[in-house]
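Please go through the protein record below and explain what the C-alpha coordinates say about the fold. Record follows.
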Amino acid sequence: MNSIAASYLWYADGMDGRLNVVSSSYGPGGIGAYIVYTTVSSEFGFLLIAATTYGICWLGIHQGEAYLESELRRDFPKAEIARDDDAMRRVAEQVIAFVDNTGVSLDLPLDICATPFQLAVWRELCTIPPGATRTYGEIARRLGQPSSARAVGRANGSNPLAILIPCHRAVGADGKLIGYRWGLEYKRLLLERENSRRGARKERYGHVVTWPARRSL
Protein backbone atom coordinates (compact mmCIF):
# COMPACT_ATOMS: atom_id res chain seq x y z
CA MET A 1 0.00 0.00 0.00
CA ASN A 2 1.31 3.47 -0.84
CA SER A 3 2.13 5.89 1.97
CA ILE A 4 1.82 3.45 4.86
CA ALA A 5 1.97 5.20 8.21
CA ALA A 6 5.15 5.14 10.25
CA SER A 7 5.36 4.18 13.92
CA TYR A 8 4.19 6.54 16.64
CA LEU A 9 3.60 6.49 20.36
CA TRP A 10 0.59 8.51 21.42
CA TYR A 11 -0.75 9.73 24.72
CA ALA A 12 -4.40 9.74 23.76
CA ASP A 13 -7.78 10.78 25.14
CA GLY A 14 -6.40 12.38 28.29
CA MET A 15 -6.72 8.95 29.88
CA ASP A 16 -3.00 8.40 30.36
CA GLY A 17 -3.30 5.61 27.79
CA ARG A 18 -0.46 4.88 25.40
CA LEU A 19 -1.31 3.72 21.90
CA ASN A 20 1.64 2.13 20.11
CA VAL A 21 1.02 2.49 16.38
CA VAL A 22 3.03 0.27 14.07
CA SER A 23 3.12 0.40 10.30
CA SER A 24 0.51 -1.96 8.94
CA SER A 25 1.33 -5.65 8.61
CA TYR A 26 -1.21 -6.13 5.83
CA GLY A 27 -2.12 -4.74 2.43
CA PRO A 28 -5.19 -2.97 1.03
CA GLY A 29 -8.45 -4.59 2.06
CA GLY A 30 -6.60 -6.62 4.67
CA ILE A 31 -4.75 -8.75 2.14
CA GLY A 32 -2.33 -11.04 3.94
CA ALA A 33 -3.96 -10.50 7.33
CA TYR A 34 -5.34 -13.03 9.77
CA ILE A 35 -7.76 -11.13 12.01
CA VAL A 36 -9.47 -12.37 15.14
CA TYR A 37 -12.22 -10.52 16.93
CA THR A 38 -14.58 -10.53 19.85
CA THR A 39 -17.66 -8.55 20.84
CA VAL A 40 -18.29 -7.20 24.32
CA SER A 41 -21.11 -5.27 25.94
CA SER A 42 -20.64 -1.67 26.98
CA GLU A 43 -22.84 1.13 28.22
CA PHE A 44 -23.25 2.19 24.59
CA GLY A 45 -24.09 -1.20 23.12
CA PHE A 46 -21.70 -3.72 21.65
CA LEU A 47 -18.05 -3.09 20.91
CA LEU A 48 -16.37 -5.24 18.30
CA ILE A 49 -12.61 -5.37 18.84
CA ALA A 50 -10.46 -6.91 16.12
CA ALA A 51 -6.73 -7.50 15.98
CA THR A 52 -3.94 -9.01 13.94
CA THR A 53 -0.97 -10.70 15.56
CA TYR A 54 0.66 -7.28 15.81
CA GLY A 55 -2.05 -5.08 17.22
CA ILE A 56 -5.62 -3.82 17.30
CA CYS A 57 -6.79 -3.05 13.78
CA TRP A 58 -10.48 -2.20 14.20
CA LEU A 59 -12.99 -1.10 16.81
CA GLY A 60 -16.65 -0.47 16.10
CA ILE A 61 -19.66 0.39 18.25
CA HIS A 62 -23.30 -0.46 17.58
CA GLN A 63 -26.40 -2.06 19.07
CA GLY A 64 -26.16 -5.03 16.72
CA GLU A 65 -23.38 -7.61 16.78
CA ALA A 66 -24.27 -8.85 13.30
CA TYR A 67 -24.00 -5.33 11.92
CA LEU A 68 -20.55 -4.88 13.44
CA GLU A 69 -19.37 -8.20 12.04
CA SER A 70 -20.59 -7.25 8.57
CA GLU A 71 -18.83 -3.88 8.79
CA LEU A 72 -15.57 -5.54 9.83
CA ARG A 73 -15.74 -7.88 6.85
CA ARG A 74 -16.63 -5.00 4.55
CA ASP A 75 -13.53 -3.09 5.66
CA PHE A 76 -11.29 -6.17 5.36
CA PRO A 77 -12.70 -8.10 2.37
CA LYS A 78 -9.38 -9.79 1.60
CA ALA A 79 -8.46 -10.84 5.14
CA GLU A 80 -9.01 -14.15 6.85
CA ILE A 81 -11.32 -13.33 9.75
CA ALA A 82 -12.39 -15.51 12.67
CA ARG A 83 -14.11 -14.96 15.98
CA ASP A 84 -11.92 -15.97 18.93
CA ASP A 85 -13.23 -14.75 22.27
CA ASP A 86 -10.56 -16.55 24.29
CA ALA A 87 -7.66 -15.16 22.29
CA MET A 88 -9.08 -11.64 22.56
CA ARG A 89 -10.08 -11.76 26.22
CA ARG A 90 -7.09 -9.86 27.63
CA VAL A 91 -7.20 -7.27 24.87
CA ALA A 92 -10.95 -6.79 25.34
CA GLU A 93 -10.56 -6.32 29.10
CA GLN A 94 -7.98 -3.58 28.59
CA VAL A 95 -10.02 -1.84 25.91
CA ILE A 96 -13.17 -1.90 28.04
CA ALA A 97 -11.25 -0.50 31.03
CA PHE A 98 -9.88 2.24 28.80
CA VAL A 99 -13.30 3.04 27.32
CA ASP A 100 -14.92 3.02 30.75
CA ASN A 101 -12.21 5.41 31.94
CA THR A 102 -11.37 3.56 35.12
CA GLY A 103 -7.87 4.99 35.22
CA VAL A 104 -6.33 1.85 33.70
CA SER A 105 -3.82 2.68 30.98
CA LEU A 106 -4.12 1.10 27.56
CA ASP A 107 -0.70 -0.11 26.49
CA LEU A 108 -1.50 -2.16 23.41
CA PRO A 109 -0.09 -1.83 19.89
CA LEU A 110 -2.25 -0.81 16.96
CA ASP A 111 -1.87 -2.30 13.49
CA ILE A 112 -3.55 0.13 11.12
CA CYS A 113 -3.21 1.34 7.54
CA ALA A 114 -2.99 5.09 7.11
CA THR A 115 -1.59 7.70 4.79
CA PRO A 116 0.63 10.36 6.38
CA PHE A 117 -2.26 12.85 6.16
CA GLN A 118 -4.72 10.47 7.81
CA LEU A 119 -2.25 9.78 10.58
CA ALA A 120 -1.66 13.50 11.08
CA VAL A 121 -5.40 14.06 11.44
CA TRP A 122 -5.77 11.16 13.86
CA ARG A 123 -2.87 12.43 15.96
CA GLU A 124 -4.53 15.84 16.07
CA LEU A 125 -7.81 14.27 17.18
CA CYS A 126 -5.95 12.74 20.12
CA THR A 127 -4.95 16.20 21.35
CA ILE A 128 -8.57 17.27 21.83
CA PRO A 129 -9.47 17.07 25.54
CA PRO A 130 -12.29 14.70 26.51
CA GLY A 131 -15.67 16.39 26.19
CA ALA A 132 -14.26 19.18 24.04
CA THR A 133 -14.76 19.52 20.30
CA ARG A 134 -12.87 21.00 17.37
CA THR A 135 -14.19 21.80 13.91
CA TYR A 136 -12.79 20.21 10.78
CA GLY A 137 -11.56 23.65 9.77
CA GLU A 138 -9.77 24.16 13.07
CA ILE A 139 -8.06 20.79 12.71
CA ALA A 140 -7.00 21.69 9.17
CA ARG A 141 -5.52 24.99 10.35
CA ARG A 142 -3.65 23.29 13.17
CA LEU A 143 -2.15 20.96 10.58
CA GLY A 144 -0.99 23.95 8.54
CA GLN A 145 -3.45 23.16 5.74
CA PRO A 146 -6.33 25.61 6.24
CA SER A 147 -8.03 24.74 2.94
CA SER A 148 -8.19 21.01 3.74
CA ALA A 149 -11.27 20.89 5.96
CA ARG A 150 -13.04 18.44 3.65
CA ALA A 151 -9.98 16.21 3.50
CA VAL A 152 -9.88 16.29 7.29
CA GLY A 153 -13.50 15.16 7.29
CA ARG A 154 -12.68 12.25 5.01
CA ALA A 155 -9.72 11.24 7.18
CA ASN A 156 -11.92 11.51 10.23
CA GLY A 157 -14.49 9.24 8.60
CA SER A 158 -11.86 6.65 7.72
CA ASN A 159 -10.78 6.19 11.34
CA PRO A 160 -10.88 2.42 12.03
CA LEU A 161 -10.77 2.76 15.83
CA ALA A 162 -13.90 4.26 17.34
CA ILE A 163 -13.33 5.94 20.72
CA LEU A 164 -9.62 5.03 20.86
CA ILE A 165 -8.95 7.64 18.18
CA PRO A 166 -11.62 10.16 19.26
CA CYS A 167 -13.13 11.20 15.94
CA HIS A 168 -16.37 11.89 17.83
CA ARG A 169 -14.75 15.14 19.00
CA ALA A 170 -14.71 16.62 15.48
CA VAL A 171 -17.71 18.78 14.57
CA GLY A 172 -19.04 20.93 11.75
CA ALA A 173 -18.15 24.57 11.20
CA ASP A 174 -21.21 25.69 13.16
CA GLY A 175 -20.42 23.37 16.06
CA LYS A 176 -23.14 20.89 15.17
CA LEU A 177 -22.59 17.15 15.41
CA ILE A 178 -22.16 15.71 11.93
CA GLY A 179 -20.57 12.80 10.15
CA TYR A 180 -20.10 9.99 12.67
CA ARG A 181 -19.92 6.52 11.17
CA TRP A 182 -21.60 4.87 14.14
CA GLY A 183 -24.44 7.37 14.36
CA LEU A 184 -24.88 10.86 15.76
CA GLU A 185 -26.61 9.51 18.86
CA TYR A 186 -23.41 7.67 19.83
CA LYS A 187 -21.39 10.80 19.14
CA ARG A 188 -23.66 12.81 21.42
CA LEU A 189 -23.58 10.18 24.17
CA LEU A 190 -19.79 9.92 24.08
CA LEU A 191 -19.36 13.68 24.38
CA GLU A 192 -21.98 13.93 27.13
CA ARG A 193 -20.29 11.21 29.14
CA GLU A 194 -16.88 12.85 28.74
CA ASN A 195 -18.30 16.20 29.82
CA SER A 196 -19.93 14.66 32.88
CA ARG A 197 -16.57 13.29 33.98
CA ARG A 198 -14.61 16.47 33.42
CA GLY A 199 -13.02 17.67 36.60
CA ALA A 200 -13.53 14.34 38.31
CA ARG A 201 -9.86 13.67 37.92
CA LYS A 202 -6.74 15.40 36.71
CA GLU A 203 -6.55 15.04 32.93
CA ARG A 204 -3.42 14.56 30.88
CA TYR A 205 -3.48 15.39 27.20
CA GLY A 206 -1.19 15.44 24.20
CA HIS A 207 1.03 13.01 22.40
CA VAL A 208 4.70 12.36 21.91
CA VAL A 209 6.46 10.75 19.00
CA THR A 210 8.92 7.90 19.31
CA TRP A 211 9.81 4.65 17.56
CA PRO A 212 8.61 1.69 19.62
CA ALA A 213 9.82 -1.78 18.77
CA ARG A 214 7.27 -3.98 17.05
CA ARG A 215 5.83 -6.57 19.38
CA SER A 216 2.98 -9.02 19.23
CA LEU A 217 -0.22 -8.91 21.22
Q: What stands out?
A: The helical segments are 65-75, 89-100, 116-125, 136-142, 149-157, 184-197. The radius of gyration is 16 Å. The beta strands are 8-12, 17-23, 34-42, 45-51, 56-62, 80-83, 107-112, 134-135, 170-171. The domain at 19-112 is CATH 3.30.160.70 (Double Stranded RNA Binding Domain).
